[in-house]
Design brief:
Distance between the termini: 96 Å
Order of helices and strands: EEHHHEEEHEHEEHHHH
Shape: elongated
Structural class: alpha/beta
Number of helices: 9
Radius of gyration: 57 Å
CATH class of the domain at 180-315: Alpha Beta
Helix content: 55-70%
Number of strands: 8
């Protein structure tokens, strides 16, 4: 017997061992349930905290990756803008170089114009001298008047022819195209300095008329596989006796079309048209206000024009190579992202197909197991029948078989006796 004191009233009572054990069990069960609830709450809180920390860590990593990717894209965009600015500066330098060359040629032509002015002045002086001499001669000897007039008329005619020759020289600037076409002249000019000035360049006839038209010549030059200069040339000439005269601007549109179709950067019209037009006689004429990167020149500026554009393009070669490298990187990054997306798509499709095949395989295995179990049952039943049959066979004897057949029993007895 155990004594227990009530905590409320203070009375003491006795309980047997089984009652005492029940009370202890109740106390233990209550404490155990309380402890169990506390542990479950702690585990639940811990699990929630762990999930929160994991989510925060995942978000942090995701934000870091996005930040890195954005910074890389920003750097690449900045590099592209910087290269574009460099190319723009290179174009500005080319235009300045062209402007300087034009000014130099204008200065040379102006000097020649001054020479012509001097010749005209000398001619005027000679005319005045001739008139004075003619007057004096008339006074001195009337009979020699006609001879003197004829003599000085011939001199005047020679002077007029010299002036005309100088005008023609100003328009054509000693192109020396005697007996040859303008195209052949330009080809000869280029071939004379090809190996010394342009050993790696390609200068050839434009024979591709698939678009319905073609230029005359195409000039291209590359360094390490990067093309840095390309020019579409068109040559135009006409006889002085031609009645319907063409203008240079009549060919601008077709030349720009040929330049774009053949992927050339510049277009140059080498022309002898409008021989009296001072705009085209003063040097290189930039007509980019009509069509981009187009120039009109006289034949004497053919080689200087190529050299000018080529040297200006060489200054931007490094920027072109860097820009091509950045563009290739962007292309490769895009291809990588496309390949990754395609891989994810193919992987998901193959995973779905594999899952379906797995389920089909599991079903097939289950069906095979059922079939084998059914065959096993049939074999076990067959074995039972075979055992029963075997037992019956073992019970068979001649005596039992001939029990109801006396004649057969007599025959077997006779055979047995004969054997003995």
């Amino acid at each position: 017997m155990q004594e227990i004191k009530c905590p409320n009233c203070g009375s003491v009572f006795q309980v047997d061992e089984s009652g005492y054990a029940q009370i202890l069990q109740q106390v233990r069960d209550k404490e155990f349930n309380m402890e169990l609830d506390r542990r479950e709450q702690e585990l639940a809180r811990k699990k929630e905290d762990d999930l929160t920390i994991a989510r925060m860590e995942q978000e942090r990593k995701h934000n870091e990756e996005l930040s890195k990717k954005d910074s890389k894209l920003a750097e690449k965009e900045g590099e592209i803008e910087r290269l574009k600015a460099m190319l723009s500066n290179a174009d500005t330098e080319k235009k300045l170089a062209v402007s300087e060359a034009v000014k130099e040629k204008d200065r040379e032509i102006s000097e020649k114009g001054n020479e012509i002015s001097v010749l005209k002045s000398n001619l005027e002086l000679q005319k005045k001298e001739a008139e004075l001499n003619e007057s004096n001669l008339k006074k001195e000897n009337e009979m020699k008047e006609s001879n003197l007039i004829e003599k000085y008329s011939d001199e005047l005619r020679i002077r007029d022819e010299e002036i005309e020759r100088l005008k023609d020289f100003k328009a054509r600037q000693s192109t020396k195209m005697v007996g040859e076409s303008l195209e052949q002249h330009c080809m000869n000019q280029f071939n004379q300095i090809r190996m010394t000035a342009f050993p790696n360049a390609v200068f050839e006839k434009d024979n591709d008329a698939s678009s319905g038209s073609k230029g005359d010549f195409i000039f291209r030059e590359s360094v390490d596989g990067t093309e840095f200069i390309s020019i579409m040339f068109e040559m135009k000439n006409e006889m002085d006796t031609t009645k319907s005269k063409h203008k240079n601007e009549d060919f601008f549109k077709e030349l720009d079309k040929d330049r774009n179709e053949k992927n050339c950067e510049y277009a140059v019209l080498v022309s002898l048209l409008e021989a009296d037009n001072e705009l085209y006689n003063n040097g290189i004429v930039d007509v980019s206000y009509r069509y981009p990167k187009m120039f009109v020149i006289r034949p004497q500026f053919f080689i200087p024009m190529i050299s000018l554009l080529r040297n200006a393009a060489l200054n931007s070669l490094e920027y072109r190579q860097k820009l091509a490298y950045v563009q290739n990187q962007e292309l490769e990054l895009g291809n990588f992202e496309n390949e990754l997306a395609q891989f994810k798509k193919d992987f998901a499709r193959n995973f779905g197909l594999a899952t379906d095949r797995y389920q089909d395989a599991i079903k097939g295995i289950d069906n095979a197991i059922k079939t084998l179990e059914r065959i096993k049952d049939n074999l076990e039943k067959s074995q039972t029948h075979l055992i029963a049959t075997n037992n019956k066979v073992e019970d068979v004897s001649i005596k039992r078989l001939t029990k109801n057949a006396p004649s057969v029993k007599k025959m077997f007895d006779e055979i047995k006796n004969e054997d003995q």
